Amino acid sequence: MYNPKSVNAEEFISHEEILDTLEFAEKNKNNIEFINKILDKAKLKNGLSHREASVLLACDIPSKNEEIFELAQQIKKDFYGNRIVLFAPLYLSNYCINGCVYCPYHLKNKHIPRKKLSQEDIKNEVIALQDMGHKRLAIEAGEDPVNNPIEYILESIDTIYSIKHKNGAIRRVNVNIAATTVENYKKLHDAGIGTYILFQETYHKDSYEKLHPTGPKHDYKWHTEAMDRAMQAGIDDVGLGVLYGLESYKYEFAGLLMHAEHLEAVYGVGPHTISVPRIKKADDIDPNTFDNGIDDDIFAKIVACIRIAVPYTGMIISTRESQDCRKRVLSLGISQISGGSKTSVGGYFNPMSNSDDSAQFDVSDTRSLDDVVRWLMEMNYLPSFCTACYRNGRTGDRFMEICKQQQIHNFCQPNALMTLKEYLEDYATPTTKAVGEKLILNEVDMLSDHNIKSIVKANLQKISEGMRDFVF
Q1: pLDDT digit string, tens, across residues 104-117
Q2: Is pLDDT at 362 greater than 90 in this prediction?
Q3: pTM of the predicted model as reported, rounded to 2 decimal places
Q4: What integer pLDDT is reported at residue 315 of this predicted model?
Q5: For residue 62, what pLDDT is reported?
Q6: Could you tell me if 91 and 129 are in contact, meaning their C-beta atoms sit under 8 angstroms apart?
């Protein structure tokens, strides 16, 4: 039985409910009157159910699809404005005991070099990332209780937070590691992490078990209920995602939204972020061997429909995607992107080495962080390196309450301007700095609250004089 309030994975992600949803969506995909009702509801900006959103995703009426994209753009603007948060992944280790058939880190891959960063290696990687200008990292590691125990992850987090280099500092570490116990999630919470991120890969249980034939990740229930354990441990910012291409995208879309509904129903807090990765070429992985690949048009519509269905959640796109693809979906819902990324173990400190031989997947957007920052600004987006909400306790239901009221910009816009100013002063090339200074002037002028505007102007001047880390 489908029950979003259940903590049993096969009840809050019900296979039968998803099949019924897809049948319902197919039946109504050309029902203009019903689609108009869904769109009218969506315009209230309170979100949609998985069934309603699935109808929009299935809709193939060109004029209605135009409305869907326009509404997604408006909702993105209303909730997140023109801000785009920047981050980088940091791969700690590619040792893994799982058998995931879509990932080159799988146990049977004997020719990929296995690497694990020492704490000294981590220090070097973090300094390299700080020298680029990054303030927010997402740490990644394969599942291996011998090589990558929770103690190693915790020590690595401590190391990352301890490194202050010139004006650099990593102010928030998000964590993307395998499903674990409530006790270990409590340890991560106490270590001061930001968001705990875990991709479901696929919500289709039979496909999931075939794609994960061996290792602890084979257990669908253990993996799918991980966010519940994280929430029970006090981690109230969690990030969902599926790997598009493994199973039918319509099935995954419905399952993803059901997972969001479950978290909202049980804990009162939906996902802080939703990621939208697509399967990409990697060491011994050919994405063409999977039959459910999606083209850029479908990908863009998925992003738009997620934005409409879950207006409060941040949306993440990585350097898996090309520059052109990332540009297209920025306005449709994406609020966070990576820049200057390496998906290999040890790829930042010595980029000219053969470190890419340990990459998890091929990077499509290979531009530097400076290039990405300038590119965003030239399109009138405001790059943000802000981590203030985490550090000021605006997480979980406290963040969601502000965001759902469309008031988060009162904090995020000033913080974005001040962190961008830090970047321009400390790391930007002259060309990027010139573009950024002009953008900041324009954005400050548009601040409507005179008190906030006055404080921001004063802080921007202090930053130019050498002071750092002002937060709202």
Answers
A1: 899 988 888 999 99
A2: no
A3: 0.95
A4: 97
A5: 97
A6: no
**CATH superfamily ID and name for 78-366:** Aldolase class I (3.20.20.70)
Strand partners, 278: 244
Average pLDDT over residues 224-235: 98
Of the pLDDT bands very low, low, confident and very high (cuts 50, 70, 90), residue 396 is confident
Structure confidence at residue 284 (pLDDT) = 66
Tokens of 193: 């992490």
For the residues 28-48, what does the mean pLDDT come to?
A: 97
